Amino acid sequence: MGNANLQVVEALQNPVSWPFNTAVLTGPPRSGKSLLGNWAAGQGIEVIDRADTLDEAEVFHRWNAVQEGGSRAGTKLLLIADSTPWEISLPDLKSRLGGSLQLAIGDPDDAMAAQLIEAHAEARGLTLAEGAADYLVPRTRRSFADIEALVRTIDRISLERAAPATMSVWRAALEALHGPDQQKLL
Q1: Cα–Cα distance measured from residue 35 to residue 111, given in angstroms and rounded to the nearest whole number
Q2: Are residue 100 and residue 15 in the same domain, yes or no?
Q3: Model confidence over 150-179: pLDDT tens digits?
Q4: 3-state SS assignment for residue 18
Q5: Taking every pair of C-alpha atoms in the chain, what is the biggest distance, in angstroms?
């Protein structure tokens, strides 16, 4: 686990400390917000994924229901928003969520980027040659979506060439995504 989600995971594991029994989770695309929400739901937390796309009055009523004990005492509410920042126009909802716990997933650090490369490769059944993460991490953008796209591109090029995913394939994938200049893109 890298630094991008460590504090979020720790806060989700301790919902008793959430102000107003509510937490708001935001983060970049493909960062695992929904996955964390699924885990939280399994812990008995009420989760509203993509809350920023719902009618604000509906979200406000759900917030109020949690404050009143909801369907059971001790109910906690996790609101997940894809928008960063979540622009809320309803003043009452804005003030209440402003007092709730704010959780934000940041960009992956080197350790998490390496783990993501390995996890995406494994999920695709792609075997990367030794040293892949050491070579790729300093050369790719620090975004969950970009790291996923990099592994997908490595897989595609490897299949097209009918060749193992070694350094020549890694270079071609980096060039396809970031252009011919493969300087460090941090």
Answers
A1: 20
A2: yes
A3: 999 999 999 999 999 999 999 999 999 988
A4: coil
A5: 61
pTM value?
0.79
Q: Tell me which residue of 70, 69, 60, 61 sits closest to 95, measured CA to CA.
A: 60
Asked whether residue 185 is assigned to any structural domain, the reply reads: no
Residue 87 lies in domain: 6-104
Alpha carbon of 171 to those of 17, 71, 148, 154, 184: distances in Å?
Answer: 47, 55, 16, 9, 13
CB atoms within 10 A of CB 74: 11
Return d(Cα 150, Cα 182) in angstroms, integer: 13
Q: What is the structure's pLDDT at 186? A: 41
Mark whether 93 and 132 lie in a shared domain. no
Query: 179: alpha, beta or left, given left = phi > 0 and alpha = psi -120 to 50?
Result: left
Count helices and strands in the chain by DSSP H and E runs: 8, 4
Give the pLDDT confidence score for residue 11 in this predicted structure: 93
Answer yes or no: are the C-beta atoms of 103 and 25 closer than 8 Å.
yes
> Over the stretch 29-76, which tens digit does the pLDDT of each residue have?
888 899 999 999 999 999 999 999 999 999 999 999 999 875 454 589
Geometric angle at alpha carbon 78, from 64 and 5, rounded to 5° = 155
* pLDDT of 83: 76
**What's the DSSP call for residue 51?**
G
